[in-house]
Amino acid sequence: MVTSRDWSVYVHVPFCEVRCPYCHFACFVNQDPDFPLRYVRAVERELDFHSGRLDSARIVSLYFGGGTPTALSAPARKELCRWLGEELRPRFAPEAEFTLEANPESLDPRVLDDWLEAGLNRLSIGIQTMHPKVLEFLGRRSTPASNLRALDLACQRVDNVSADLIVASPLDDWTGLLRSIDAITSHPVSHISAYLLEIHADTRFGREVAQGLWQPSPNDQQADLYLRLVQELADRGFHAYELSNFAQPGRESRHNGRYWTRDPYLGLGPSAHSFDGAHRWWNHRDAHRWCESVEAGTLPVEGREHLDRRAVRRERILLGLRRDEGIPEAWVEDRSRLVDDYLRAGLLERVGPRLRATPEGWLLLDEVVLRLCD
Length: 374
Description:
With 374 residues, the chain is of the alpha/beta class.
């Protein structure tokens, strides 16, 4: 058991006010007014199960995702923030990063005050787009006006603000994407995450596409938007330090960075994953089953895996090439001919003793890594 290293903690909040048609995460629209507070108390108890891992370690980053953490009921939020301030915050390392995901329509000063008092110092806002028709298509409850109000509030109260974008939906084009970039960068936002719209079979979008009701944007159109986005954000001072993440200097997400460097992290809440350097385990996806397991005094673990040498190699290469730092070329010296092919094709580039993916390479990264590791 790892006990002496720094840890990151992720807390999954499964509640949403609506279910977005593209979302495949473990979240739901809650109808039980008592369940949010029950959930919070289960999170507190679940952490106690892992006291042996954390007692001699520092928490270097804390991340609340979902779901919609800002949609928690007031009693649940206040209890959670009390626990954070009194129980978890004393475990923080100096300069620990504490991030909260927020939807624009559920972010208001009262909500933010509670989280700030608990130690919040980084906010990630799900802007997604500033185009009203695209917002409607994506099933978002926000509007361009509420997006702007959320950005105004966040940037007034929090020094480190990130904004999320969803890129290349069928209604998206460069003009609309540029409008979104303009709106976000007109605020003192220091980080942007941009994700190509993915279609998952177990979502409403997945079912609609399977029925032929509409089709995703062509791959070449998605690639063009992504490559133009990378260059546009670079011109505005947001460096692509990872294939979906762009930051001003020194404002990279430390929490996500620890996933990519395979540092240990503990996941609390339904569907949350944990990793100790050699083993990965994950919680029950169903929130009620997870809660019942915790209340019964048992770890709510649904599955575990031990990473053998081959799995570790593939993971190190994949996660390394996601980042602009890349990987030591020595890691793939047994694939030198294939590396040369990728260098000539412009999918990889050599920087001293390291290899890194180009933006074009990021678009084909799964294929590149599969062949490098096969």
